[in-house]
Amino acid sequence: MRRLIALTLALVALAGPLRAQVSDQSLMVSKAATTVERIKSDSNLSGPLANLLARARAVLIVPDLVKGGFILGAQYGTGVLLARDRDGRWSGPAFFSVAAGSIGFQIGLQDAEAIYVIMSDGGLSAVIDNRFKAGAEAGVAVAVIGAGAEANTTTNVGADIYAFSRAVGLYGGAALDGAAILPRHSWNALYYGGSPTPEDILYKMSVDNRQADRLRDVLAR
Which pairs with CB-CB distance under 8 Å and at least 24 residues apart come from 207-213? Predict the structure, then answer.
C-alpha cells in the first residue's frame, strides 16, 4: 500500500511539470494548425484558400479574433505569422497581436477564425512594419473572403492580402479599419529561446521549433 501511495504521489508531482511544458505559445501554434484545417474543410473557402496558399509569400493566422462593441468597437487577437522562402519552405511561426478600434454605429459580438494569405513582399512588409495602423493609407490591397465579405477574388485579382474568416455571432455596423499588428517579442523569446526578432524568424530562418511541424505540414498540403 505504501508503495502504491508513493507511486501515486510521484505521478501527481510529475503531472504538474508536464502540464507546464504545454506553453501558451505551443497551444497557439496548435490552434493555428486547427484553424487552417477547419477553413480548408469549408466547401465555400477551401478552393480559393488552397489556390492562394500554393502561391503565398506568407500567412498570418489568428485562431481567435474577437470583435465586439456598442458605439465604440474593438477587436483583438493573437496570431502567428509564417513566411515562405524561394524553395517553398515555411519558416517557424512569429507571434503577433492584432488590435483595432473605431467609433460609429455598431453593435454585437463576434468570435472569428481568420487567415490572412499574404501574396507579396509589400504585403508582408506592411504586416511586419505595422503599417496597417494607417488603414487605407497603408498602400496594400486587401480582399476579404468569407461570411459578411465585402469583396472576393473575382473583383480583387492581384490583391496583396486575401483575408479568410469563419465567424460565430453577430456584428453589425462599421468595419474596424486601421488595425495595429504588433510583434509579441516575449512570446517569440519563450518559444525559441534568446531574443529572436521577427526578421530572424521569418527572413533569416535562423531559429526553429519542431513543435511547429504540424502547422507547416497543414499549410503545405
Answer: 207/92, 208/92, 209/92, 211/26, 211/29, 212/29, 212/92, 212/93
Half-sphere exposure of 146 (CA within 13 A, CB side): 19
Q: Say yes or no to pLDDT of 191 above 90.
A: yes
> How far is C-alpha 38 from the geometric centre of its chain's CA atoms?
14
Of how many residues is the chain composed?
A: 221
Which grid coordinates are listed for 30?
496548435
Domain chopping of the chain, boundaries: 22-220
**Would strands 161-173 and 142-146 be described as parallel, antiparallel, or unpaired?**
parallel
Which amino acid is it at 117? V
Q: Dig out the grid coordinates for 154 from the structure.
A: 473575382
User: Is 0.70 topped by the overall pTM?
Assistant: yes
Burial string for 91-114 (b: 16+ CB within 10 Å, else e) reads: bbbbbbebebebeeebeeebebbb
Phi and psi (nearest 5°) for 66? -95, 125
Query: Looking at per-residue confidence, does 25 or 45 come out higher?
Result: 25
User: How far is the C-alpha of 34 from the C-alpha of 57, rounded, in Å?
Assistant: 21
Residue position matching grid coordinates 473575382: 154
Neighbours of 24 (CB within 10 A): 12
Q: What is the pLDDT of residues 50-105, one digit of tens each?
A: 889 999 999 999 888 766 544 444 567 889 999 999 999 999 999 998 876 544 44
| Nearest residue to 171 via CA among 73, 61, 98, 99 | 73
Amino acid at 28: M
